TrEMBL record:
Organism for this UniProt entry: Flagellimonas sp. MMG031
Protein name: Uncharacterized protein
Keywords: Membrane, Transmembrane, Transmembrane helix
TM region(s), chain numbering: 32-52
Domain of life of the source: Bacteria
Length: 69
């Protein structure tokens, strides 16, 4: 299991709260354009919390750019 930093935990919790809010809104009869942006942004936040923040990813990208030049 991956260990999250404090920032990743906060973003994950905000995403989960947003998804729950959007789901409750859909159940309560909100219009599509009222709940979908909240749902979309919240699911994006959940995915963002799982992005790796290791520097090794950046080094690999920089080396590929240097080879292409």
């Amino acid at each position: 299991m991956k260990k999250f930093t404090t920032h990743q935990k906060v973003v994950l919790i905000i995403g989960i709260v947003g998804v729950v809010t959007a789901f409750i809104g859909k159940v309560n009869g909100w219009e599509y354009m009222e709940f979908f942006p909240i749902f979309y942004a919240s699911t994006s936040m959940i995915w963002i919390s799982f992005i790796s923040n290791k520097k090794s990813c950046r080094k690999a990208l920089k080396s590929k750019e240097a080879q292409n030049s």
